[in-house]
Amino acid sequence: MINGPNLNMLGSRSPEHYGNRTLSDIETTLRIRADNLAIGLNFFQSNHEGDIVDFIQTTNTYASGIIINAGALTHYSLSVRDALVDTKLPIVEIHLSNIHGREPFRRHSVIADIADVQIAGLGWAGYLFALEHITFAIRRKN
Question: Which CATH number does 2-141 carry?
Answer without folding.
Answer: 3.40.50.9100
